[in-house]
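I am writing to request your help with a piece of structural work I have in hand. I am sending you one protein, given as its amino acid sequence and as whole-number tokens for its backbone shapes. Kindly check, if you would, that the fold set down in the tokens agrees with what the sequence suggests. You will find the record immediately after this paragraph:
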Amino acid sequence: VQLQASGGGLVQAGGSLRLSCAASGAYAIGWFRQAPGKEREFVATISRSGGSLYVGDSVKGRFTISRDNAKNTVYLQMSEPKSEDTAVYYCAAGAMMSTSPDHYDYWGQGTLVTVSS
């Protein structure tokens, strides 16, 4: 299983950015992020069908996760990003939704998001 995260870049605080992850609909997908010197942090997860999703507390109300299985793509819409959202964002695939990175079997290479204040 190959995952490809894309869409990262420089965004102004309060702006918006959409990340994409090329992923088969056969897997639940999770987004995680890791800032320099910090542990990997859960961001959001979505079921294989897209019917169930969960967003972490640190981004709830600002980020949304969705998927289009016809395009084999999962999205992370980032709205009103803050400087503390600066990190490398990873998408991961697993058998079921989870907030733990240990429950995902496949990982993409990550895409860097930098939020300027």
